[in-house]
Amino acid sequence: MDSKSPFIIIGTGRSGSQLLGRMLDAHSDIAMGPEASFLIPRLWLELVENASTGSTDFEEKNKDPGGYLRTEEIRKQMRKLGGKRLPLHDLPISAADIEAISDGARRAIQALLPSFFKIDPTAQAWGLRELWNGTARYSYDWRPYDEVLPGARWIFLVRDPFDFTRSNAGHSGVDLSREYLRQRLNDWSAVLRHSRKRRQTGRYLEVRHEDIVREPETTIGTLCEFLGLPYDDACARLVTEKINSSPQPTVEADEVLTADEARELAGKVPDLLRHLDELGYSVPESFPLQKKSSLPTTAFASVTPGQFWAERILTLPIEEIPVAGLDQTHRSQFWKEEQTQTLSERLRDSARELLNQTEENLRLTDQLEHLRQEERQEKERQEEQRLEKLARVQVQIVAPPKPWWIRALRQPRKTILGIPEPVKTIVTKAPRPPKQTNIPVPIPAARRDFQVDFVIAGAQKSGTTALNTFLLHHPEICMAPKAEPHFFNKEFNDAWNTREIIDSYQRHFPNFNGQAIVGEKTPAYMVEPATIQRIHRYHPGMKFIILLRNPVLRLLSNYRMVFQNGATSVPLREWLQTTETLEPNSLPGEAIAVRRGHYSRQIAEIYKLFPREQVLIRRTSHLLHHHRAALEEIYQFLGVCDPSIIHPPEIVKSRGDKPTAEPEMMEWLLEIYREEFLRLERLLSWNLDDWRQLEM
């Protein structure tokens, strides 16, 4: 283990640092220490202060007119700056003394840390938590860390600032007021600015708390790669243990901030809106303000380190209580407080109080789980009633013919092989079934207002038309009759108010008759960020269904469609280089046909405004080769029942053969998307080796 190169988790409290620390501590090669409570900069400043004021140069140059040293005056000057104390190089001492003082302090602290924090020396990597640095209360310079731990890696853990504020209020037992919200947002933004100074080290990684909870495997994989360690499944499993659930309101809010009020307040915090946009967060549509009685304290679902040490302390004689054994949060509190009781008595009192709090928290956890169980049972009962009601409604749906019937009806008589002659005659002379355009559907639960719930947003030439056809047949879904309304990218007017947007959009759904789910298909939506912003303005809860096809084959299919429609007659390479194919905000020389295949950029823009659970991304090949499973997955994502309407996979297939081009052209196109394959693999945790082989 390299004692000079740990990893340090930085950021604010109530952002999942304990959870992340336990996840990493579960790794077989990692030893995780407690929260450091600024021990390193405090020791550094104390050692340097004592050594520098005792140097020869200092004594000679810092005597007052009476001949006395101005030591205490200099120390007061250093303390006035709080964490940003007087830099060592600003003191009136020689360079040789500076180097000697720095080297002595550096070696002393390096030798102390592993033993003080009880780090396992056999571990390949070790880490600490250092929270709140950058706030008005704690603002320590990063230089002492660079002196003592020159190879440290920095993991900045960040959480949505509004969720962080709510969790902080519940944990601290204070009123969640406008002023408290403003203070915490200022702290959040200040810590972010101060922490990002670590970027210059080249050993800096930002991790979102939301990604740890939603995608623990992917996040742990990124962290292990950053630390140079192999992936360990034990890390991700800890997320399911509900170590530290965020407090949520349990009663009606005393006051609710609107979106405009929250944005106005956020705009007064320096850099906050810019930080929200950079990290993929947004100002909430509403934010409840509450009294402290409305916010429960944090509940623990397992034995915490504090509870463990509290139980241990209560079983020991007073003279045997280990000071360094207590949880770091409480130890740092005792370090600062000055009380008349002895240290051992204070430790024992705190341990007893901590155990009482833990018992109360466990009781709250049991009550919360009981309420969740009742809620699940109620949802199951409602779902059963809905299915029973749906079963009573008579729905006439023409079942699709068998696959060989489809082939038979579409082919001349002489090409039908392997079928007895009498059957051939009957089949070839049989009339085709009428095309079903208006299938009678039941009206499940009446909706009070019209609202589009989902969009098939892309990608073009990737099977979206087939998927739209399948959803048209579902009795609970209302799809726009026009295959591609292009409402948000062509018709939408940014000057419209909410009522005008709803009325204009509803004109595209004349067939809406109270269906439970409403959707439409426009593959161009995912291409432009402005379109995604308009969709979010219309409905932040909108769901996205995205089908992705190998971008090389998608581009060739796009060109073939344009060529066959007579829109172009030039060769492919020349078509890609014409200025007519460019769109605003494109990269220089990047044609729209090429740009449509850069899926990672487009998906990243969606993730900035919509949570990942509202976005379903699948490959076109999944719909083609696993047709029934793909539809069941989509029905479940949309929250509708599976009506057992099976559509033949042939509908998904493109017309004609797989698009091809000359080998040189195919290699050129593969090279264009080589980096895109890597970005998409990282974003979605996919393996795209088959795409590199020009498969679907």
How would you describe what is shown here?
The structure is a single chain. The protein is α/β, with parallel strands linked by helices and 696 residues long. Helix content is 48%, strand content 9%. It has 31 helices and 12 strands. A 5-stranded parallel beta sheet has the order 2-3-1-4-5. A 5-stranded parallel beta sheet has the order 9-10-8-11-12, with helices on both faces. Strands 6-7 form a two-stranded antiparallel sheet. Helix 2 (39-53) packs antiparallel against helix 5 (95-116), helix 14 crosses helix 16 and helix 22 runs parallel beside helix 26 (599-609). The longest helix has 50 residues, at 343-392. It is globular and about 85 Å long. Mean pLDDT is 75; it is low at 242-251, 295-306, 317-341, 394-420, 422-448, 579-589 and 652-656.
How is this fold's topology laid out?
Layout: E1 7-11, H1 17-25, E2 30-35, H2 39-53, H3 56-61, H4 71-80, H5 95-116, E3 125-131, H6 143-148, E4 153-158, H7 161-172, H8 178-195, E5 204-208, H9 209-214, H10 216-227, H11 233-237, E6 255-258, H12 259-267, H13 272-279, E7 286-289, H14 305-314, H15 328-336, H16 343-392, H17 403-410, H18 421-429, E8 454-458, H19 464-472, E9 477-479, H20 487-491, H21 498-506, E10 517-521, H22 529-538, E11 543-548, H23 551-564, H24 572-576, H25 592-595, H26 599-609, E12 615-619, H27 620-625, H28 627-638, H29 663-672, H30 674-684, H31 689-692
Parallel strand pairs: 1-3, 1-4, 2-3, 4-5, 8-10, 8-11, 9-10, 11-12
Antiparallel strand pairs: 6-7
Helix pairs in contact: 2-5, 7-8, 14-16, 22-26
